[in-house]
């Protein structure tokens, strides 16, 4: 496993890392393009058939309005870095002085490790409800105000490193956003039903009714076979898109670890993991129906399993520490721990087994440890082969049955 250490890399190594991550995300961009068309196609066909009931001009007008609304929304989101939409609570804003005091150091550390200037990405704060951090179009990292208040500086650095990692190696973000806004008319009835329901108990009744009405509309417009084919393609798009999004999340985790923010990211996910339903029961005690629900929710989720994410982050941190460990002179660390950590064990290894209850002289033991921990290697100058010292098993060097000439 190749785990770079970007905070100690040169400018050329950081640029090569960014290029390598972009090339790795290219196949996933092609995959996102292939799986992003069924639901927009479904929306376009429904709008055309509904407008055709009035006339061809009405169908063309509906399609033009639909495409214009989607494109204008994408353009407005791409300008988030240059405008300050303070009046709109749904849009991110510039951080306040108190929030800047918490965010400036982690943000500058992340950009410095990545090797990009400060103007490449913009940091904003979002007041609306949602996830702790989001990567917006146009190179904007939006952090929720609640996360700024609750998370520590180390966790904020991990969160910012993860969100910047989306810009470095994500696959198909542009196609996903385009498909999302082109699919807005199909989500509009569900949003209206959710607003009218108000309470979660009523929402469980309203949303299935909206879905049944949508299926009835498709059967009326395209027939049973056509409606079944369109719904199957839409389900395939959802599964394929969420699989690529899970890959993007895992890739952003790896980038955060490479930037040196792995410890903070692991602490942040461990905080989220405490609220996960899987921790309510051990796997051996989970009923079968709960296992089925968790498996289906995991396959249809945009985020990987939190437990696996924490484990993968920990493995990458350990691999990073093993690869970049600085070698030191003297005996190996495991030999030092085994033979020289305890003065009594060191004395016994040097002079053999004394009588029970024997306590070695601490000064002699310290002198012995200081000599063993010098720059000499373990194999050449171990305690049993030191010139002038005693041989194996506490015997002084001299002739033996195997080597009489010794």
Topology (SSEs and partners):
Blueprint: H1 11-35, H2 38-52, H3 56-78, H4 97-114, E1 122-126, E2 133-136, E3 140-144, H5 145-150, H6 153-169, H7 173-182, H8 184-197, H9 200-258, H10 262-273, H11 288-299, H12 306-323, H13 333-340, H14 343-351, H15 362-372
Parallel strand pairs: 1-3
Antiparallel strand pairs: 2-3
Q: Which terms summarize this structure?
A:
2 domains; mainly alpha; 15 helices
Describe the main β-sheet briefly: 3 strands, mixed
How would you describe the oligomerization state of the chains in this entry? single chain
CA-based shape: globular
Strand element count: 3
- Taking the alpha carbons of the first and last residues, their distance comes to 49 Å
Strand content: under 5%
Q: Rg, please?
A: 32 Å
Number of helical segments with 4 or more residues:
15
Round the mean pLDDT to the nearest integer and report it: 77
Structural class: mainly alpha
Q: Roughly how much helix do the residues carry, as a percent range?
A: 55-70%
Order of helices and strands: HHHHEEEHHHHHHHHHHH
Number of domains: 2
User: Low-confidence spans: pLDDT under 50, at least 5 residues?
Assistant: 373-395
3D structure, described in words:
22% of the residues are buried. A hairpin with a 3-residue loop joins strand 2 and strand 3 (140-144). The protein is mainly α and 406 residues long. The chain is globular, with a radius of gyration of 32 Å. 63% of the residues lie in helices and 3% in strands. It has a three-stranded mixed beta sheet with strand order 1-3-2. It folds into two domains: 6-323, no CATH class; 337-394, no CATH class.
